[in-house]
Structure to design on (600 residues):
């Protein structure tokens, strides 16, 4: 078919987690004939093994589909399936920058949830045409009228003409495709303008180098063209161009409004930056596209190879993952307990888990990950302001004048019956209530200002437990605020283990210290010598547990006879254990790090 910019529709699927985006994408692929009967499978676009296992989308995926409308006109649909979890909202904002429209999917049983609201506002911020769609109408407890009311009251979008679909059975998906062709505006670029292409995704291929996903806003990119990356000024010759439909198809050129991949022999992962603009080397544009907002990591943890010889492999693996995930950062660090590794920054705890699993699966690494913490800001008595990513970077407590921690605005949505339990949960995590609204008879919306450190550990799980699975949350960073905080050190045989060092509110230090040393006593195996586990604050020990030594039966070879002989052997053993205690190195298993995560 003839490619015309007026026949192209670029749109993203956005929703809260588990509202059916990937299932709807499956039905759209089937209806447009992109996949054959033999290829059909659930979550077709979720290609990573970890996505299929967990049943969640982690990476946004772009596919080109050909749709023939009832009028006989053919359209090119560029569909981007996005993640729904709050930790991957950066993937959503990147995807929306490449689109003119968004399909806002809402579960007919769950209604509008926190990420539904957040993603809808992201789409509105990008000036996209938003089409509301109510999914799972096949379920017996679907309440379509209630959901329409929630869409209008919570998001402010007219839901009177919302399309009611069942992605599972394909009901009314054809109506949705007609609406996409009619309502979503075509791209506005011109082929004879200088090339402007937005880099919205990229990944590393061991044979091809860096593969870059682009959305062409102006001009045309052709095979053999010499292109320039705006941020670095480096130039490359285009070797291959193409798109996914959903299988890769190569083309000779990509024009205005099109979405596709560019392979240009870029060998170093660090050379491509997401949000960058690609232009022609000979006729460059004068300014880059706006790109998208840089996100700062919220959670930090040390990642170390179990085998020190894997350090170089870990560094290469992190560089390749960083190419595919701009919200993830890393820098080298050393630990007295764990050796050489990296201090990594993540958007949240799920993000951290996914990165760890990908490093272990895709790159075959065995890792030790330390207790996660947030970044703090410290003002010293000399007036110097320091941003601290790890508690071990903190200056001595006598030099600290002001200690600040990051706060977030947490939006919680739940049925009114559970408001009391949600308030109790938030107040127990040092939350400050800012508002409580009942926009519909079925929905309560609470807003709390909370320290970021209080929501990185099990807060989401506790919310789900308190609301029997009906509660949802979203959050955004609002700034640093002063707090009465102290550094809690864990010592094993009088040696501080920096991997277990973290910052806690002063009033919680004794309780947390006691719980951590008790947990560590359970998981650190007994040695041939006594192991003392202590918690200390500002140089003062506040809790202690002792792992008793293993005792070898040195008197087993004595059959009867004089008791002094046995006593002599036992005394000799005791002297040997004293010497071992001075030189012994305690092995700390990975379960010890995991057990500390579970201490609230």
């Amino acid at each position: 078919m003839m490619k015309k910019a007026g026949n192209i529709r670029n749109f993203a699927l956005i929703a809260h987690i588990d509202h059916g985006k990937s299932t709807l994408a499956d039905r759209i692929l089937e209806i447009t004939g992109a996949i054959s009967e033999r290829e059909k499978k659930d979550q077709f676009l979720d290609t990573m093994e970890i996505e299929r296992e967990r049943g969640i989308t982690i990476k946004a995926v772009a596919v080109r589909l050909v749709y023939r409308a009832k009028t006989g006109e053919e359209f090119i649909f560029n569909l981007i399936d996005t993640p729904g979890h709050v930790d991957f909202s950066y993937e959503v904002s990147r995807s929306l920058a490449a689109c003119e429209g968004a399909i806002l999917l809402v579960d007919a049983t769950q209604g509008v949830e926190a990420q539904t609201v957040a993603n809808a506002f992201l789409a509105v911020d990008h000036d996209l045409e938003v089409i509301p769609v109510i999914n799972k109408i096949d379920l017996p407890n679907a309440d379509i009228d209630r959901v329409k009311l929630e869409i209008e009251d919570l998001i402010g979008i007219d839901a009177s003409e919302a399309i009611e679909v069942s992605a599972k059975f394909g009901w009314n998906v054809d109506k949705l495709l007609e609406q996409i062709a009619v309502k979503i505006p075509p791209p506005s670029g011109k082929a004879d303008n200088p090339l402007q292409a937005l880099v919205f995704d990229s990944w590393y291929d061991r044979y091809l180098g860096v593969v870059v996903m682009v959305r062409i806003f102006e001009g045309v990119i052709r095979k053999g063209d010499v292109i320039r990356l705006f941020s670095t000024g480096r130039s490359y010759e285009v070797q291959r161009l193409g798109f996914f439909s959903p299988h890769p198809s190569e083309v000779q050129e990509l024009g205005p409004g099109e979405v596709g991949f560019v392979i240009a022999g870029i060998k170093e992962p660090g050379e491509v930056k997401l949000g960058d603009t690609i232009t022609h080397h000979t006729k460059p544009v004068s300014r880059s596209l706006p790109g998208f907002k840089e996100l700062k990591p919220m959670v930090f943890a040390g990642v170390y190879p179990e085998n020190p010889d894997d350090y170089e492999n870990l560094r290469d693996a992190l560089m390749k993952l960083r190419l595919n995930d701009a919200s993830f950062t890393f820098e080298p660090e050393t630990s007295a307990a764990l050796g050489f590794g990296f201090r990594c920054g993540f958007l949240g705890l799920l993000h951290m888990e996914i990165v760890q699993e990908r490093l272990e699966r895709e790159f075959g690494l065995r890792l030790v990950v330390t207790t996660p913490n947030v970044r703090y800001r410290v003002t010293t008595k000399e007036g110097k302001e320091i941003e601290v990513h790890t508690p071990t970077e903190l200056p001595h407590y006598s030099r600290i004048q002001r200690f600040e921690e990051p706060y977030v605005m947490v939006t919680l949505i739940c049925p009114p019956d559970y408001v009391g339990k949600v308030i109790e949960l938030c107040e127990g995590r040092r939350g400050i209530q800012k508002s409580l609204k009942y926009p519909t008879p079925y929905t309560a919306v609470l807003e709390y200002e909370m320290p970021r450190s209080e929501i990185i550990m099990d807060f989401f799980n506790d919310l789900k437990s308190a609301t029997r699975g009906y509660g949802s949350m979203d959050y955004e960073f609002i700034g640093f605020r002063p707090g009465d905080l102290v550094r809690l050190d864990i010592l094993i045989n009088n040696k501080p283990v920096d991997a277990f060092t973290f910052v806690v509110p002063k009033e919680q230090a004794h309780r947390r210290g006691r719980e951590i040393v008790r947990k560590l006593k359970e998981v650190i195996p007994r040695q041939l010598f006594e192991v003392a586990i202590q918690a200390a604050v500002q140089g003062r020990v506040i809790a202690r547990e002792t792992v008793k030594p293993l005792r070898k039966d040195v008197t087993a070879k004595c059959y009867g006879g004089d008791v002094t002989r046995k006593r002599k052997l036992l005394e000799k053993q005791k002297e040997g254990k004293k010497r071992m205690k001075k030189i012994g190195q305690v092995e700390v298993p990975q379960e010890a790090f995991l057990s500390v995560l579970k201490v609230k």
